[in-house]
C-alpha cells in the first residue's frame, strides 16, 4: 500500500478516510487462505482490514458447505451480524455456501447484498461499489484459470504461511460437496508458488503449509508434487514444510522420495481415511480399499521414520453396517493415528450419496453412538502414544500466545501442541523442549535448549 492510491469516496465518508473491511472465516484452511486473498484485493483498493465487524464498511462472511451444521451456523451468524452493521455497511457472503446456494441466499437473507463463489473474489471491490448503488449481485461462475496470481494476500500475523497450490477437486467422493462448490482441479505454476514462498520467508515466516483439496495430485503441466516439494524445500530460510490434504492414491514413489529427501518436510501427514471398510470406501467412491490405505500408511512410514499420522473419518454413511463400523474401529487401531477428525455423515443436496436408497440411511442415534465410540477409540490410542512420549525432547516452533492464560503455544515437527511457560521463549523462535506432561492430546514442556537441535534440516538458523 502506498499513500498515492486514490482515496475511495463512500456515502457519508470524507474522501481522505479509508474504508474498512472485515472478513469472518468458516471452514478449512483453503477458506482461511482465500480470506487473505480477499483482504489483499480490498487492501489494493485502499481499504483497511479491521478485526471487528462493528461499523465496518464491508463485512464478508467466508463460508463452508461441507456439512449441514456448518451452514446453519452461518445463517445464525448472518442474523447476528445485523446488529453490527452500520447504515451503509455492505454485507457479502463468499465461499462454498455462497457457491452452493447462489441467489437463494439473497432470498433467505435480505440484508445480504453480495453472494460470491470461490472463483469470483477479484470482482469483490467492484461488486461492493455496485451494491452501494443498490445492486444486489450473485457471482458463482467458475473460472478454471483463476489463481489470483496478481493478488498479494494480506496474511494473518503469525509464523507460518498457508499457500494454495491447487484449487478445486477432480475426485468425486459420493458424500462430498466440494467438487460442486470449488469446481475442477487446477494447479498453480511451480514458479509462482516458489515466489510466494520466497515472499513469505522474506516477511519472516519460516514454515509454509501447501494447500490443495488433493494436494499431492498437484501438476502444473510440467512439474508434479514431488518437484514442487523439492523446489519449495530449497527456498533458503524455510525450515518447515507441510501440506494438506493429500489423497492416498496420489503418493507416487516420486512424491515419497521427495518427502524423504527434503529436509524441511515435517514428519506428519494428514491422510484422510474416511472409512476402514472396503465396502463403504467403494460406496464412497474413495478409489482405494482398506488394504490399499494400510499399504499407503506403510509406505509413508518407511519413507519417513517417526512419521505422525492424523486422519478424517466419517461414520453413518448410508448403508454402513455394524460390521463396516467395526472395520473402521480396527483400522484406527491398526494404524494408531496420532489424532483424527471424526464426522457424522451429513447429506448434501446434489451429491451422489443423497440418491442412495432411503432404507440405507443410518438412523441418527446409531450414527451418534458410532461417533462416540470412535472418538473414544481415537482418544485411547492417542493418549497411550502421547504418554510414551513424556520425557522425550523435540524441536518446537513457538507459534503464538495460547488462547487461555498467557502460556506460549509451540508445535513439534510432527504436529504435537506443546504449551510452554509465558517467558520460556519468543514467538517465532525454534528451541528444544522436553515434554513434561500431557492432557492426552496436548503437552506441557520446558525449554532445554533455546537453540534448536534440528532433526533433519541443515539450513542456517537465520532466515534469508
Ligand atoms: N458429511 C460428513 N463429513 C464430510 N466430510 C466431507 N463431506 C462430508 C459429509 N457430507 C468430511 C470428510 C473430509 C472432511 C474435510 O470433511 O471427512 O475429509
Ligand atoms: Fe471431497 Fe473427495 Fe475431493 Fe476430498 S477428494 S474434496 S473428500 S471429493
Report the structural category: alpha/beta
The beta-strand count equals 19
- Roughly what fraction of the amino acids lie in strands? 15-25%
Average pLDDT reading: 92
List each distinct ligand once. 5'-deoxyadenosine, iron/sulfur cluster
CATH-derived architecture of the largest domain? Alpha-Beta Horseshoe
Topology:
Elements (H helix, E strand, L loop, with lengths): L19 E6 L3 H15 L4 E2 L8 E6 L4 H14 L8 E6 H6 L1 H6 L5 E3 L7 H9 L4 E3 L20 E5 L1 E2 L10 H5 L3 E2 L2 H13 L4 E5 L13 H9 L6 E5 L8 H9 L6 E3 L7 H7 L5 H14 L4 E8 L6 H14 L3 E6 L19 H26 L3 E9 L6 E5 L4 E4 L9 E9 L4 E7 L15
Parallel strand pairs: 1-2, 1-3, 3-4, 4-5, 5-6, 7-10, 10-11, 12-13, 13-14, 17-19
Antiparallel strand pairs: 8-9, 15-16, 15-18, 16-17, 18-19
Helix pairs in contact: 7-8, 8-9, 12-13
5'-deoxyadenosine binds next to strand 13.
Question: Can you tag this structure with a few keywords?
Answer:
13 helices; disordered N terminus; disordered C terminus; single chain; 21% strand; OB fold (Dihydrolipoamide Acetyltransferase, E2P); binds 5'-deoxyadenosine; Rossmann fold; globular; binds iron/sulfur cluster; 464 residues; six-stranded parallel β-sheet; alpha/beta
Structure explained in plain terms:
- Helix 7 runs parallel beside helix 8 (225-233), helix 8 runs parallel beside helix 9 (253-261) and helix 12 (322-335) packs parallel to helix 13 (364-389).
- This protein has three domains: 20-139, Rossmann fold (3-Layer(aba) Sandwich), CATH 3.40.50; 160-388, Alpha-Beta Horseshoe (pyruvate-formate lyase- activating enzyme), CATH 3.80.30.20; 393-449, Nucleic acid-binding proteins (OB fold (Dihydrolipoamide Acetyltransferase, E2P), Beta Barrel), CATH 2.40.50.
- A hairpin with a 4-residue loop joins strand 16 and strand 17.
- The protein starts with 19 loop residues before the first strand and ends in a 15-residue tail after the last strand.
- The strands form five sheets. The protein has a six-stranded parallel β-sheet with strand order 2-1-3-4-5-6, sandwiched between helices. The protein has a five-stranded mixed β-barrel with strand order 15-16-17-19-18.
- The protein has 13 helices and 19 strands.
- It has helices at 29-43, 68-81, 96-101, 103-108, 124-132, 178-182, 190-202, 225-233, 253-261, 278-284, 290-303, 322-335, 364-389; strands at 20-25, 48-49, 58-63, 90-95, 114-116, 137-139, 160-164, 166-167, 186-187, 207-211, 240-244, 268-270, 308-315, 339-344, 393-401, 408-412, 417-420, 430-438, 443-449.
- The longest helix has 26 residues, at 364-389.
- The chain has 464 residues and is α/β, with parallel strands linked by helices.
- The model is unreliable at 1-14 and 455-464 (pLDDT under 50).
- Residues 169, 171-173, 176, 178-179, 213-214, 247 line the site of iron/sulfur cluster.
Amino acid at each position: 500500500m502506498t499513500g498515492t492510491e486514490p482515496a475511495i469516496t463512500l456515502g457519508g465518508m470524507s474522501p481522505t478516510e479509508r474504508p474498512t473491511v472485515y472478513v469472518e472465516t468458516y471452514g478449512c484452511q483453503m477458506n482461511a487462505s482465500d480470506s487473505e486473498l480477499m483482504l489483499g484485493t480490498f487492501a489494493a483498493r485502499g481499504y483497511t482490514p479491521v478485526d471487528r465487524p462493528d461499523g465496518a464498511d464491508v463485512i464478508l462472511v467466508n463460508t463452508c458447505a461441507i456439512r449441514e451444521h456448518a451452514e446453519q451456523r452461518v445463517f445464525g451468524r448472518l442474523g447476528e451480524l445485523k446488529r453490527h452493521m452500520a447504515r451503509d455497511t455492505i454485507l457479502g457472503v463468499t465461499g462454498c455456501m455462497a457457491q452452493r446456494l447462489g441467489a437463494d441466499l439473497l432470498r433467505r437473507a435480505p440484508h445480504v447484498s453480495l453472494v460470491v463463489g470461490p472463483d469470483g473474489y477479484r470482482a469483490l471491490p467492484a461488486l461492493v461499489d455496485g451494491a452501494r448503488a443498490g445492486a444486489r449481485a450473485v457471482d458463482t461462475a467458475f473460472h478454471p484459470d483463476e489463481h489470483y496470481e496478481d493478488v498479494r494476500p494480506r496474511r494473518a500475523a503469525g509464523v507460518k504461511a498457508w499457500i494454495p497450490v491447487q484449487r478445486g477437486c477432480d475426485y468425486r467422493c459420493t458424500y462430498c460437496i466440494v467438487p460442486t462448490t470449488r469446481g475442477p482441479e487446477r494447479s498453480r505454476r511451480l514458479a509462482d508458488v516458489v515466489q510466494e514462498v520466497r515472499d513469505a520467508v522474506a516477511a519472516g515466516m519460516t514454515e509454509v503449509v501447501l494447500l490443495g483439496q488433493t494436494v499431492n495430485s498437484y501438476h502444473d503441466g510440467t512439474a508434479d508434487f514431488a518437484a514442487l516439494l523439492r523446489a519449495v524445500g530449497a527456498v533458503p530460510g524455510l525450515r518447515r514444510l507441510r501440506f494438506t490434504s493429500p489423497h492416498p492414491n496420489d503418493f507416487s514413489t516420486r512424491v515419497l522420495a521427495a518427502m524423504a529427501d527434503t529436509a524441511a518436510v515435517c514428519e506428519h501427514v494428514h491422510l484422510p481415511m474416511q472409512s476402514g471398510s472396503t465396502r463403504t470406501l467403494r460406496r464412497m467412491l474413495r478409489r482405494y480399499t482398506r488394504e490399499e490405505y494400510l499399504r499407503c500408511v506403510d509406505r509413508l512410514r518407511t519413507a519417513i521414520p517417526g512419521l505422525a499420522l492424523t486422519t478424517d473419518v466419517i461414520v453413518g454413511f448410508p448403508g454402513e453396517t455394524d460390521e463396516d463400523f467395526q472395520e473402521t474401529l480396527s483400522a484406527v487401531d491398526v494404524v494408531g493415528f496420532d489424532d483424527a477428525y471424526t464426522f457424522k455423515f451429513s447429506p448434501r443436496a446434489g451429491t451422489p450419496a443423497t440418491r442412495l436408497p432411503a432404507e440405507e440411511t443410518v438412523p441418527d442415534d446409531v450414527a451418534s453412538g458410532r461417533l462416540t465410540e470412535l472418538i473414544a477409540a481415537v482418544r485411547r490410542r492417542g493418549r497411550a502414544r502421547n504418554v510414551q512420549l513424556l520425557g522425550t525432547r523435540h524441536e518446537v516452533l513457538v507459534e503464538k500466545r495460547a488462547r487461555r492464560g498467557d502460556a506460549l503455544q509451540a508445535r513439534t515437527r510432527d504436529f504435537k501442541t506443546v504449551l510452554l511457560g509465558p517467558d520460556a521463549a519468543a514467538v517465532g523462535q525454534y528451541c528444544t523442549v522436553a515434554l513434561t506432561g500431557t492432557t492426552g492430546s496436548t503437552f506441557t514442556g520446558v525449554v532445554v535448549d533455546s537453540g534448536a537441535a534440528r532433526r533433519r534440516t541443515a539450513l542456517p538458523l537465520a532466515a534469508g
